[in-house]
Amino acid sequence: MLLTLSWTLPLAGAILLALIGNADGKRDAMIRWTALGVSLLVFAVTLVIWARFDPASADFQFVERVPWIPAFGIDYYIGLDGISLLLVVLTGFLTPIALLSSWEGVEKKVKEFSIFILALEAAMIGVFVSLDLFLFYVFWDAMLIPMYFLIGIWGYDQRIYAAVKFMLYTMAGSVLMLVAILGLAWMHSEATGAYSFDLLKLYTLQIAPETQTWFFLAFAVAFAIKVPLFPFHTWLPDAHVQAPTAGSIILAGVLLKMGTYGLVRFAFPLFPAAAHLFAPWIALLAVIGIVYGALVAMVQPDMKKLVAYSSVSHLGFVVLGICAMNVQGMQGAVYQMLAHGISTGGLFLIVGMLSDRRHTRQISEFGGLRNVMPRLTAAFLIITLASVGMPALNGFVGEFLTMLGAYLWDPRFVVVAGLGVILSAVYMLSMFQKVYLGEVTNPKNEKLQDLQPREWASVLPLCAMAILMGVLPSIFLKPMEPSVKKVVERVQTGAPSVRAGASPAAAPAIAAAQGR
Amino acid sequence: MTMFSPELDAIVPMLCVTLAALASMGAEAFRGKNERLPIGGLGIVGLAGAAVSSVLLWNRSTVGFGVIQADNFGLFVTLTLVVVGVLTILFSAPVLERNGIPSGEYYSLVLFSIVGMMMMATASDLLVVFVALEILSLSVYVLTAIRREAAGTEAAFKYFLLGAFSSAFFLYGIAFTYGVTGSTRLSAVGAYLSAQALSSNPLILVAMGFLLVGFAFKISAVPFHMWTPDAYEGAPAVVTGFMSTGVKAAAFAAFARVFLSAFEPFKADWAPVIAVIAALTMILGTVVGVAQTNLKRMLAYSSIAHGGYLLVGLVAANDVGKAAILFYLLAYSVTNLAAFGAIALLGARDRANDELRDYAGLWHTHPALAALVTVCLLSLGGLPPTAGFIGKWYIFSAAVSAGYYWLAIIGMLTSVVSVFFYLRVVVMMYMSERGTSEVPPRVAGIGMAALALSIVAIVYLGVLPTHVLNVAAASISTIF
User: HSE (CB half, 13 Å, CA atoms) of B290?
Assistant: First the structure.
């Protein structure tokens, strides 16, 4: 029940808010506090789940299963392993921060804003806990709706373009995945006589290598767009730059992870043979993305856009780690997902604070902020260093592990990816220097307020988490280790048996179906 | 349990609606000059009777006079038509009052065309299908022009001319079928053809082709869709909603019945043709829909595209496909009718308010209505958790399990494109500033209630589809 509670609670909160009448905006404060309260409660639930989670087990825990559409073997089937556990906790952690970040930035239609944030949280948690592919797809697509509204209504000037682009890009990728999901379920019915969307059953399905190729591509494109992997990244800068701060935090912090999570949970273990075939190419795209994202970030005049492109670069490391298909790489990838969620969430948060104060995000408009807002500068420095990957902060562990994993697999990728690490130091630190160091050059910046109590409440947890993840990574690595090993094992052992041609039922059936 | 004689039982649902139609004609005739009568209520009573009798007939496969087959398939469509009828009446009430349309003749025409639709869904003889087709078509032609203004009359005339044309094709098809097989009964035709399946008689292909064209006109499949945008745009919004759902449901039911029973032995001949038509219909409907600025015209193209999705189910023609057609018809009917109903509610006496820009900033003035319309549009676009998503998933499952991956992929991609134009309405409503157009400050309560009811149905079918899916699956297991 606990796991169901984790996603129904925010949904119930959203419905509750919808019932509060607020046509004249008089109850805005109450609505803000209610939404924050609900999101904190959800965070508490995720923490309780973590506390009760057995870190030694690689199995799915808190499993709940109720038939949903029995005729097609579709169940309401949810559960957590070490990988999804941490992502669920991350979601629970970032949502209150997102709500806090928009306390003053969002003035119009506060009720609807809070509803969409909570609905989004429900769908995101749903994506991470689904063990039924149909259920997963429902959450995956449903999540687009609140995000679309968040960008489109509360975003900046080009918000409509960005919102529609975000929606169409993501949908275009995911519908092909739906066809592949349907194909999988049908192959299961050919092999066993019953439809099933049960992930664990589909893992055991023997699929002919050629079919794997097509299905893998359908899944991989959907996830690559979400990550986003170069060259599918073009929606991201638009969406990030136009989204309101809360939207950017959630988009960078959680939504992008769905792509990489999908690769780890679905694309690679479901189609191991195809994964082996495509891994070098995906890794190549990832490495191109690392360098490309970093280079483009270097020349951005807009802070938000800079952070957005840095995401393309950082997510490249995650994908590289996944492609290595060994324990170090995978673990590093998952760790980097969490670390990126914290540090990029923090960057967007603080950029949002500056933008709320000055209504501009151009780097050239700022300078010498250290003199007027030392506390904010300190917080930004911590987050910047975390993002750059300085040892003892969260970014280092993830990058190190992914590069280690990639090195064990193919050192050539690491050489290029290492370049990305250096470049990230260049663009992040140069932005820091231009915005915060030196003298105050723009008179408009002289009277800026330093961190307010409410802002402290949102910045502090992020900084604390960045340090904690850097100093004591084992807290986070331990619960995920058995699950990661299991995924790696599945990817590694699944492939040869398929290569040997052990596909008794599926292959002829498909051939027959296509010949019909 | 027999209600009357076994022969009569099968037509009881139709009788209920016919009586309601006659009663509303009578009520109109004897109405005092300024007397207001709840004539729509008569219609709802008749439709409720049809619903109850359909439920009682369930699982009994009654045959009436050898030509009406009240099997579960037909009854499922009948029930869908009852839903269409009830929602149409609810949405019509405020519109009739606003535009001063005499309610007696309006409702009796609606009810008569529903009778035709129900007959078409249950007919098991080609000639009865034709008679049913004419009953429903003639009523709908008149409904299209019920406002007696230039646009409506032009639309009705176009619809009538092309409809007559398609009826002629259909009759030719029947004639050829009779010429080859010596019967118009579907069972007899099917038996004859399956005996002859190996020897190919070109005349039967001609017959099939004519029938196909006739049906394709009625479901507005490409390239026989030309009349649709004009007719849909010209008719009053609520009538458009009615004909884009009811006519389509009835025509599809008959289409499926004829091609999946009588012409089943020639499936290898017609399936590829319909597959191509389905692909073209999906593509054209969505691509042209993108360019529209009038909401009614946009939804007209969208309903063309939805016809294409339904054709995919027909092409797949396995058990999943047949059940998927039924489920999709229900999901689509509720959603599309609700969308047109919302347009109708926003219209004013002197202007239709159906341009896209009329919806600018609707959220600020009508938040509830905007939210309900959004759910309709998301359902039409096939996003979870709505009925439209389950429907599309079901249809494309059928396509995939029949090996038509390419159709599933085209369907999926076109549905992404369609989301683009549905979103334009959402953008207008939520993300644009209030325009200059004058939308009525308050919309009628009964219309909002109908809209809310549809939304409940859409979400119910989207979140808990099991029950209806099972009923749909059971409906097709008894026949074909």
Answer: 12
